[in-house]
Every structure is written in structure tokens, then in C-alpha cells.
Amino acid sequence: xxxxxxxxxxxxxxxxxxxxxxxxxxxxxxxLLFIVVVxxxxxxxxxxxxxxxxxxxxxxxxxxLIFVGQNLISGQYMLEALWTTTLTVFxxxxxxxxxxxSLGVLVGETKFGERAxxxxxxxxxxxxxxxxxxxxxxxxxxxxxSKVALAAFIATFPIVxxxxxxxxxxxxxxxxxxxxxxxxxxxxxxxxxxxxxLPYIFTGLKIAAVGVMAGxxxxxxxxxxxxFGALIRQSASQMNTPRVFALIIYLSLLGLALYFTVVxxxxxxxxxxxxxxxxxxx
Length: 282
Description:
Layout: H1 2-12, H2 26-46, H3 58-73, H4 77-109, H5 111-126, H6 133-140, H7 144-167, H8 172-180, H9 185-223, H10 228-237, H11 241-269
Helix pairs in contact: 3-4, 3-11, 4-5, 4-7, 4-9, 4-10, 6-7, 7-9, 9-10, 9-11, 10-11
């Protein structure tokens, strides 16, 4: 009898098979893609299709990667620059998280926030962020404060939207259940809406982790300072393109470190949520 039921289930249940390319292990797929990109890059530079001033060869970039790495390990001026940029990113991310979460709760929990505050936030977010850089520099000076302010300004809005969306994620039945047992508005927020909305909030934090890097480097480009952005501007002015590529790669590693830190915290706090959805990383 069990054999008959097994056969019927096999005939009626349809399971989509993964495409051949999707069966490749993630590490192997990433390695293959990296090799293909570098091979095309090397071919373009060897054939002279692009000026080396615009696109250096992989070998030249690797040489500068080693040089920058040695400079960082030996504790020379590049380590100080990287530390300055790291502090800027860290402080800006903390400030953006605090402000973005607070405004997100205001927008998601009150009609005033939704109807009065949110339109202004959207209007500010549609403005070109680079236009605010001179203002922050004029208000806060050329030190790290203006860079932190600009980076936090760029990273705040995604957290606001994600937090507000997360507070709406709880179903009507769940909210009615909490209301029927006499839970206060604060208890409903802390015990229902925030736990349910954590996946949304962490999505906003991951977007902010990327945006805060762009804001910090933009601030160092426009407002001087001693960070990696200033080193990139200096190398670009000297037409040292391999050095620019090397510095950008190290900055991407810093951004990845912040991003995957957020992913790690999410896995610890939101362990029940699946992270293998389309577009998810980590």
C-alpha cells in the first residue's frame, strides 16, 4: 500500500529542477567568474584596445595591490588613511542606524510620521547628495565630522523605509490577537511588530552598509582629509591608475567586511528567516 502512495506522490508532486549552471557550487562559480573577468581584462590591455592610462593591466594592478598591502602591514601612512576611513564609516553607520530606526518607528507607528514626516524625507532623499557636501564642510569643517555627517545622511533613508515597512509586516490577525489580550501599544511594538519586521530592518541596514561607504569616500574626495578617498584623489591626479584600482579594491574589502558583519548579526537575531531568497547575499 505504501508503494502505491509513493508512486502516486511521485506522479502528482512536481519539483522544479535546478538549471545546470545553478548546480555549480557557489565557491566554484565565483572562482570561474573571477577567472573569466580577469582573462578578458588581460586580453583587452594586451591587445591595446584601451589606453593603459585608463585601464591598467591585471599585472600592474596586482603589483600595486602588493605595494599597498605591504604599506598597510608595515604601519606606514596608508594604514593611518585606512583607519581614518574605517572610523568614518563606523561612526556614520551607527548614526545612520540610530536616526533611521527612530524615524522609521515614527513613520511606521504614527499617522503624523506617515503623513507629515515621510514626504519631507522622500523630498530630501531625491536631492543629489553630493550637493550637500559643501554644506556639511561649511558647518563642520574639513575634519572627519563632515565626512561622517555626509555618509550618515546618505545611509539613513534606506533604514527609515525598511523599518517602517517592517512594522507593517505583522498581519491583521496577529495585531488583533495582541489587542484582544489587552497588550499595550508599546508591548505590541516590542513583542510583535519589531520581531516580525527584523528581516526588513536588516535589509535596510545592508543597503545602508553599502551607501555609507560611498558617502565616506565622497566626503573625502570633496572635503579633503587623510582617508583613502584622499589617496585615491591624489593618485588619480598623478595618473597612477594602477594605484587607484588597488586602493578601490581595498575599500571594497572594507565595505564587504561591514556588509557581512550585518549579515552575521542578522543570522544570529533572525535565525528563523531564510536568506536564500533571490538577490540575497550571505
